[in-house]
Amino acid sequence: MSGLKIFVDLVSQPSRAVALLLEVNNIPYNKVVVNLGKGEHLSHSELKAVNPNTKVPALQEGKFCLYESGAILRYICSSRQLPDHWYPKDLERRALVDQYLDWHHSTIRIGCAHWFFAQHIARQPPTHHVIVDSKATLLKAFSILNDYTLQDNKFLTGEMISIADIQAICELTQHWMVGRNVYSGYPNIEKWVAACIKELQPQFDQVHGIIYKIKSRGLFGTDTNPEPLKSKL
Amino acid sequence: MSGLKIFVDLVSQPSRAVALLLEVNNIPYNKVVVNLGKGEHLSHSELKAVNPNTKVPALQEGKFCLYESGAILRYICSSRQLPDHWYPKDLERRALVDQYLDWHHSTIRIGCAHWFFAQHIARQPPTHHVIVDSKATLLKAFSILNDYTLQDNKFLTGEMISIADIQAICELTQHWMVGRNVYSGYPNIEKWVAACIKELQPQFDQVHGIIYKIKSRGLFGTDTNPEPLKSKL
Predict the structure, then answer these.
(1) Average pLDDT score over residue span A20-42
(2) CB atoms < 10 A from the CB of B135, how many?
(3) Could you say which of A53, A67, A79 has the minimum Cβ distance to residue B91?
(4) Which of A59, A89, A106 is the best residue to mutate to test the B interface, defined by the most B CB atoms within 10 Å of its own CB?
(5) What percent of chain B has pLDDT over 90?
(6) Which residues form the GST N-terminal domain (chains A, B) (predicted)?
(7) Is there a contact between A75 and B91 if contact means CB atoms under 8 Å apart?
(8) Can you tell me the distance from the alpha carbon of B172 to that of B189, in angstroms, rounded to the nearest whole number?
């Protein structure tokens, strides 16, 4: 049994990112599934001891506890000495991975997650302003990704995949649950998504199994009008 | 002249964080002031070439360009080999600094910055929901900081100050401009704020000069009812 314990629910975008890095690199770990849909995180005493925010993913290794997916991804790369491209030792290349991981929070993460939650999960209005704000955030963010970040790069920080790509792709795939490609109409982003999926198979499909299942069963409904984001505003 | 160029406006919280780390460590740099109040960032071609998001802070060193304050803080520590406590080499201690820097975005940053912008800068309604959401976010975040993160620690990740503390304190001080201590009523946070200020003087006051000036002139108004956040909801 591995001494590395990871609390996840693969319906959670950052949980998928951490699981995907571990799976792609064949790192053994003890997976503790916390079912968010059933509200298990709210009363999970073991999770709360590791992460007082009671969110997944969270990591425990011996007495060491860690939360926040970006920090966990970095820690896994460094503590397991993963191939350099995941989180380069070169200061400038590493800084570009850090730059994306920081930028992600206020752009792709907040845009995709708040929109999805407001439209498909939240039971109480008002949610309209959240959806409007989220789409505006994503429009700006996708322009940066499409026109600058990915203009000359195969991946977000260069020619090799890194934890920045894993963090980003696992957020965008959330909307697949309702049949929506939020990045539709942005050619460089679409090309990059395809490159990520190719690079991360077969583990990508394994980690996204729950997403495919939710979509096929229509558990969160289906976007009946999946026009490009640009044309919706 | 230093080869390190930093684009800042000290009215911007993350700009102050980067400037403070540089000043406290006596690192020479070429400061390019971008006046956000005058909208200079919107048409600043030099800034846009460094950061297509046209936000400050941004860093340029030779051909290398970097944005996002968290990434810049890490890069400065590593490239200047600053004293270890700022961004420890030990993997677990470093991971805890990364954990805070990631957590910061969706908690202290979004809570403080969106609230301040909506209440004191935005010219167009509706802003009420933003203020309500921001206060709710801060209430949760302050409980975590006060009751867990700072319960047994002098600073956010232990007994020594790090870039996590600099990032956090520079966000909280934004509300000083209107005479509001957002963390009022949280004893462990109040103690930590005092410890940070003591540790970072005299550079703390230098970097915050513009904040003190704005407050004394009442440029953004004054909070006439600065009750603790807890009692306002």
Answers:
(1) 97
(2) 17
(3) A79
(4) A106
(5) 87
(6) 2-84
(7) yes
(8) 11
Q: Which residues contact B39 (CB under 8 A, 6 or more apart)?
A: none
String of DSSP letters for A82-137: --GGGS-SSHHHHHHHHHHHHHHIIIIIHHHHHHHIIIII--SS--HHHHHHHHHH
pLDDT tens figures, A60-89: 999 999 999 999 999 999 999 999 999 999
- Paired tokens of B176: 């000083």
Residues of A at the B interface, defined by Cβ within 8 angstroms: 52-53, 64, 66-72, 74-75, 78-79, 91-92, 94-96, 98-99, 101-103, 105-106, 109-110, 126, 129, 140, 144, 147-148
pTM of the model: 0.96
Burial class (CB in 10 A: 0-12, 13-18, 19+), A203: middle
As a whole number of angstroms, the distance between CA A108 and CA B109 comes to: 16
Exposed/middle/buried for residue A82 (C-beta within 10 Å: 0-12, 13-18, 19+): middle
What gap in Å lies between CA A73 and CA A21, rounded to an integer?
A: 7
CB pairs under 8 A between A and B: 88
CA distance A43 to B39: 47
Total number of residues shown for chain A:
233
| Partners of residue A71 in chain B, C-beta under 8 Å | 95-96, 98-99, 101-102
pLDDT at A233 over 50: no
Beta-strand ranges (E) seen in A108-216 are: none
This complex has an ipTM of: 0.96
Does the distance separating the beta carbons of B101 and A102 come in below 8 Å? yes
